[in-house]
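RECORD TYPE: inverse folding
INPUT: structure tokens
STRUCTURE:
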């Protein structure tokens, strides 16, 4: 989860002298599902200035239909919906029309017995997603899951479309089991209920076996195979006892497998996840990306069995490669724009490869590669609000020194730097530091209308660091913030403040921080440590106390988060939480704060926001608070996100830019 939306991006603006509301002077406004506290009326001029940036949109590939059309996800009204495009730059035909966004779009296989797609939809961001079938012939929609407070997703279909496997918490609300549905009869049953968080990955070509995975953490998963008829589960042996695994799929012959893992090789630990091939019958084992010192993110295999496509994450940039099967020789591809690639999907005949491509200066769009002639064709061209895209700012990748060493040298932290093109009116650019969530996430140079608005309209620079604990830089880096080492990542923000102070073009007296989810915790923690150096902060759906967070997060998430953050039931770990949690250090926050939250958030409950707002107001500090009753872990409805962004801009104007 890479959350790379405007929600966690941050807009900027500034502050004149302001009559700060004291705790007993809270100004509360309730408009529909929105409750705002101490947020002034948004000036009409600011709304107008933001309008075009808030009307950018992107499109993501979901897969192919039988007749060669692309299914995509895009938004034309309030929320992202399923659409169909049948030719390059053709009409985007909307297929679903819901007030809530749809996701998890999984088209029926080309050899399937019916045409349509499965999709997921929740209510108000509660993430209790239910699965539905959209039938192409009748244009009707059918609920496939229980319709209650269960979370369902990860849809995987057999080659003939007769079986559908998915993950669900329906049995007890805590464990994510694997369920199997007969799509012809509508009968559903639990296939794997071994406890923990399980996901289906791929059916064998004959539909008799299903590859599955138990997820424990970003550094630990356990793959296996289950017999569809009997439910007998066989876990695969893992060298070294513990490893991370990504995709796992049957080879075209149904005997061998392709998979992504950082499992040790010949007893030697591996820093990065590589693409591997294993045929148990012959004993053949091959590491296909041994010469690439970066993580493999994803792969896809063509239905005709002739090609395999995969992407690598190389310092935050995606790179695509396609192998010919079974030789594993790389084929020639067209040159692709620099950016982030996803949504890999081969056409039913295996001759074309669709993908989503998102760059720093262009929203996500659908592209198709013709494999025979290595040509690239754009299938969608998403709007950028009528703005001149040539004026969008592309970030540069910088590395700054931090407080510790690795191999005897000072460790450096990667960050993307968005620098305004126009000279600063004051000679130095104000800066906003945008911290990603996860914490195992990674910020990548994808399109960010917030960063563009800040750079082009406000003259504000943005720094987007990947502090220790981020994915994409090896398993050691990923583990550097675990449990009791949590505040080491906060020190990386302190080191970034030092770096900013050394840059003659940046204004170290005007620095803001923003982040969502775990990034929200980082904002709060940074303010407790560096309030004298940070002018203001924006916390979106952030953790304010690890103990209360773990107590109140949804049951199906609790054990997964304990692996990363630590177990609050352990007295020693509980003591660490008491020491480092921002709630207990709220008196140290001496900077203006804006907290934004969705009331239906199953990950970071809204009580985390309520308690930090109350505590910081107790310092006499100004706190703006925004709560949506129809949102969860982020703001997915356009009107809600637009207001949040406008309020954030006003907050920066009043508290960062001093306008």
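DESIGNED SEQUENCE:
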């Amino acid at each position: 989860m890479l959350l790379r939306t405007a929600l966690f991006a941050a807009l900027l603006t500034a502050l004149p002298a302001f009559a700060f509301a004291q705790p007993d002077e809270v100004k509360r406004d309730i408009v529909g599902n929105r409750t705002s506290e101490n947020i002034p009326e948004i000036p009409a001029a600011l709304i107008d200035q933001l309008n075009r940036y808030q009307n950018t949109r992107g499109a993501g590939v979901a897969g192919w239909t039988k007749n060669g059309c692309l299914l995509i996800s895009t938004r034309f009204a309030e929320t992202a919906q399923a659409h169909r495009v049948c030719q390059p730059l053709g009409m985007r035909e909307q297929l679903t029309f819901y007030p809530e966004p749809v996701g998890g779009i999984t088209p029926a296989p080309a050899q399937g017995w019916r045409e349509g797609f499965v999709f997921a939809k929740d209510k108000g961001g509660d993430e209790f997603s239910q699965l539905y079938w959209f039938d192409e012939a009748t244009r009707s929609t059918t609920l496939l899951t229980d319709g209650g407070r269960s979370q369902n997703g990860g849809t995987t279909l057999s080659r003939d479309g007769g079986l559908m496997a998915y993950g669900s918490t329906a049995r007890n609300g805590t464990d994510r089991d694997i369920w199997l549905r007969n799509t012809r009869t509508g009968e559903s049953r639990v296939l794997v209920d071994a406890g923990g968080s399980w996901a289906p990955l791929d059916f064998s070509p004959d539909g008799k076996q299903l590859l599955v995975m138990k997820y424990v953490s970003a550094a630990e998963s356990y793959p296996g195979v289950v017999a569809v008829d009997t439910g007998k589960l066989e876990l695969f042996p893992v060298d070294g006892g513990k490893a991370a695994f990504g995709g796992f799929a049957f080879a075209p012959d149904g005997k061998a497998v392709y998979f992504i893992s950082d499992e040790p090789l010949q007893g030697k630990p591996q820093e990065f996840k590589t693409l591997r091939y294993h045929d148990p019958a012959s004993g053949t084992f091959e590491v296909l990306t041994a010469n690439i010192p970066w993580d493999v993110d994803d792969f896809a295999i063509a239905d005709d069995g002739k090609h395999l496509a995969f992407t690598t994450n190389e310092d935050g940039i995606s790179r695509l490669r396609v192998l010919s099967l079974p030789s594993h020789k790389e084929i020639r591809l067209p040159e692709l724009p620099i950016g982030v690639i996803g949504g890999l999907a081969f056409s039913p005949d295996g001759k074309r490869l669709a993908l989503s491509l998102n760059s720093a200066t262009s929203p996500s769009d659908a592209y198709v590669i013709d494999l025979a002639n290595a040509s690239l064709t754009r299938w969608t061209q998403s709007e950028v609000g009528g703005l001149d895209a040539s004026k969008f700012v592309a970030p540069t990748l910088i590395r700054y020194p931090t407080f510790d060493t690795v191999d005897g040298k000072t460790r450096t932290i990667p960050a993307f730097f968005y620098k305004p093109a126009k000279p600063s009116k004051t000679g130095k650019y104000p800066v906003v530091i945008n911290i990603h969530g996860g914490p195992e996430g990674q910020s990548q140079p994808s399109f960010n209308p917030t960063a563009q608005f800040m750079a082009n309209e406000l003259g504000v620079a943005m720094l987007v660091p990947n502090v220790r604990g981020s994915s994409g830089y090896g398993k050691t880096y990923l583990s550097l913030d675990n449990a009791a080492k949590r505040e080491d990542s906060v020190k990386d923000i302190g080191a970034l403040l030092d770096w900013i102070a050394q840059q003659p073009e940046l204004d170290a007296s005007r620095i803001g921080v923003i982040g969502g989810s775990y990034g929200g915790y980082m904002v709060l923690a940074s303010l407790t440590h560096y309030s004298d150096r940070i002018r203001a902060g924006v916390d979106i759906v952030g953790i304010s106390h690890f103990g209360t967070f773990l107590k109140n997060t949804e049951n199906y998430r609790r054990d997964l988060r304990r692996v990363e953050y630590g177990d609050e039931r352990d007295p020693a770990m509980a003591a660490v939480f008491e020491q480092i949690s921002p709630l207990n250090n709220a008196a140290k926050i001496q900077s203006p704060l804006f907290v934004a939250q969705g009331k239906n958030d199953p990950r970071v409950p809204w009580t985390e926001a309520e308690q930090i707002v109350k505590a910081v107001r107790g310092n006499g500090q100004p706190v703006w608070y925004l709560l949506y009753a129809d949102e969860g872990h982020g703001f997915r409805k356009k009107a809600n996100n637009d207001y949040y962004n406008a309020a954030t801009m006003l907050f920066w104007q009043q508290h960062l830019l001093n306008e």
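NOTES: The radius of gyration is 24 Å.
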